[in-house]
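Quick illustration, no need to memorize.
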Amino acid sequence: MIQYDKKHEVFKLDTPNTSYIIGIADGKYPGHIYYGKRLSDTDLAYLMRTGEHPAVPSVLPREKVSFYDCFPMEYPCGGTGYFRGECVNIRTAEGQEGLELTYATHRIYEGKKKLDGLPATWGQDCDTLELVLEDEVSGLQAVLSYTAFRDVDAITRSVRILNGGEQEIYLTKVFSACLHVDREDFEVLTLPGSWARERRIQRRNAGYGVTAVESVRGISGHQEHPFMALVSGGCTQTRGEVYAMNLVYSGNFIARSMADQFDRIQMTIGIHPERFCWKLEPQGVFQAPEAVLVYSDEGLGKMTRIFHRLYRTHLIRGFWKDRERPVLINNWEATYFDFNTEKLLSIAKEAAEAGIEMLVMDDGWFGHRDSDNSSLGDWFVNEEKLPGGLKYLADEVNRLGMKFGIWVEPEMISEDSRLYEAHPDWALQVKSRRPGQCREQLVLDLGRPEVADFIYGRLKEILSSANIEYVKWDMNRPLAEVENAVLPADRQGEMMHRYMLAVYQMQERLLKDFPKLLLENCCSGGGRFDPGMLYYSPQIWCSDDTDALERLAIQEGTQLLYPLSAIGAHVSDCPNHITGRRVSFETRGIVALSGTFGYELDITKLAPEEKKQIREQIALYKKYHHLMRNGTYYRIASWQENHLYDCYMVVSEDQTEALLTYVQVLAEANRRSRRIRLQGLLEHGLYELEGKTYRGDTLMYAGILIERMKGDMQAKLIPVKLLERVEE
């Protein structure tokens, strides 16, 4: 629900348990008042402190710059006296800067509009406020859109910029959201990492000055994540305050917090201004990406569950949104580039007998690609490897009762390719400079419509040629030397964003033409695991590191924001191909169960006992996947923090069943059993657990004992079942 208190010039946006409040100071300046637990009152403009020195400009015009320096601007502008990190900057054709966006009008309506060309949350069980701000000098208009959901405690924000003047304007910065919080003992929580070490949880003190995470790689990236949270000191999974922002975007971003001299912290998030400049002709429009804001007064666990619910119900869409995903086997770690039809079918036959439901053929099926140094862009079947082409292979796989899928990397081009020979200018590069390679490949300039249309045309032809029901869309290098061969000089700063818009458009076309296709995004593992990609694909490959120990940390960081059903998690070969670590087949299966579940190994080389375990693991997946897909996730312990064990559970929405996962990472000598307190159950329910009955309050507050197991990386699943509800 959204209210406007005309008397006090206050807007109040309510979700089930939170309120977000904005005020208009001095009749023109939108200011942030409050974000937190739901309130009843709207007469809260006093929290903007406008009665204190330096007062508002109409009262004390001589101190207007001082007013800007301490007022909690809802969307601060650059060049006119705001020094704490503005959200929008412009430059005129004459090179002048400076902008003052003030309140003009507003609109409140039910539902939510789509964002032009961009992924965003959706739904009708929500209300939207559009605050229209205008700059009298330039004619620039900014529409700040806020959506409050009625069924989940999330607020989304986006910004649309319109050039209502008569002269062209260059946008040099356009952020999506800004939030002000009074400084207390906050820490900044972020998700840094690297290839094969994605999304490790990090906290640091929110001291004075700026703390920022960013990507200028053309992707959201392995190294940082488009997310930032302020957490109160000592915040745990169940206690403390959290203010979180997540950007629904897959390209360059920056998330920033700044504690100022007046002990207020400003958080901002949006497209990174580095290498960004967007030319707006008169009446031109620029749409910024959406940001998701979440407040929790019950620690990180509540924040996590809000994000999960929002993304499951208001971001993921399409045919596979609420369906059980097929258990797949990917041939990459089994064969790498060394495969043919016969070898793939031998894997498929063994897999079908074990109950695996889909064969995915990875890299190496096209052009003359026998290693990663050629043929990207040549999306034609290599019939020396695959006689009869994709149709023959897919038909044979289907005869085994399995689905068939393929790997593609449509955004890339190899210098050793027919496409590069014909169109070298289609690769991103700087004139007169030899383009730098990464993984011996270049990036296609998808911002040029003729390039995107050609590549998409090849994809469509391939997917129409056979019964291909799954596509793994990979992207294996960052963007560098980004220059367009056809855009004028004053539009080269648009390239990074144009590229991302083109990728989104291609994936939108793909889903429109093949609505039942299961699309899984990938970017050298988890380099583009973000809400923008989740809008197009209901699952994303989490990391190229499939080592079960490493995956505990990677999946914990990912699960902090994203539903388990979105996380690509597989049982892989042993010893692991990246770390060399040996982990039991059973534990690898248990760790992978908290995701989409599948296999990355040569099943033809497994021992009979391991093939038997595959059948048992698939049975577990079938039994509990509804929990992983729709259940409520609780993080109980983190081995990253305690260095000994990991524990989490998923509870059905009606609280009648749950699955507890416990992993003993390191064995200890001379230790007794470990007490684990469960979460999310009915206090007055009677539950069965390992053949014993317990009341829900006993399980949650007194806990259970888990006996010490022999050896490192030992794991167990503990089902929990409600027997009856007990009277208080």
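The chain has a mean pLDDT of 96.
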